[in-house]
Write a structure and sequence with these properties.
This protein is α+β, with helices and mostly antiparallel strands. The protein has 4 helices and 9 strands. It folds into 2 domains: about 1-70, 2,3-Dihydroxybiphenyl 1,2-Dioxygenase, domain 1, CATH 3.10.180; about 85-160, Signal recognition particle alu RNA binding heterodimer, srp9/1. The chain has helices spanning about 25-35, 80, 95-105, 145-160, and strands at about 15-20, 35-45, 50-55, 60-65, 85-90, 110, 115, 120-125, 130-140. The strands form 2 sheets. Strands 5, 6, 7, 8 and 9 form a 5-stranded mixed β-sheet that branches. The chain is globular. The termini are far apart.
Length: about 160
């Protein structure tokens, strides 16, 4: 979708289209929790917003209201489907501050912010619309071998 002032027509990056119940409320949450910038908002004459395009940390995210889901496609909000199939990963400068901001805006923590075996400090939450997010700050850069060794160690401890 090319909209003047948003992504360039030649941009070939992937942009998720998140299906939510209540695009307006989702916009407000993403602005408060993640610093989203609204690039486009498609509202019906009755004021209901059916679609929006946001920029979050330099990436594009589309929002579509659950009412737009088609019966011939297995799409819908997490509330409609009873689960999610993706986790949005967002790298930030200060994961602890970003996580606290997301929770204060209405996100539900999925545990504390922790240092992960793969070198990042990570905090995960579910937004009020049922989508899962992982916020992270890189603490150390690992070689593929270091990452593999740590992965084996980490998961061997879980199986013991």
């Amino acid at each position: 979708m090319s909209i003047q002032g948003s992504r360039r027509p030649e941009d070939r990056s992937i942009a998720p289209n998140r299906i939510v119940r209540g695009v307006e409320q989702a916009i407000e949450f993403y602005q408060n929790a993640l610093g989203a910038e609204v690039l486009y908002r498609g509202a019906m004459p009755n004021g209901v917003t059916l679609h929006a395009q946001l920029r979050i940390a330099g990436s594009y995210v589309f929002l579509s209201d659950d009412v737009m889901s088609r019966p011939d496609m297995a799409t819908g909000s997490p509330q409609k489907l009873g689960g999610v199939t993706t986790i949005m990963d967002l790298f930030v400068d200060d994961v602890d501050a970003a996580f606290d901001r997301a929770v204060a805006a209405g996100g539900k923590p999925l545990g504390p912010v922790e240092d992960a075996f793969y070198g990042d400090r990570v905090g995960m939450f579910t937004d009020p619309f049922g989508h899962m997010w992982s916020l992270a700050t890189t603490k150390e850069v690992l070689t593929p071998q270091q990452l593999y060794d740590r992965m084996l160690e980490h998961f061997s401890q879980l199986q013991s």
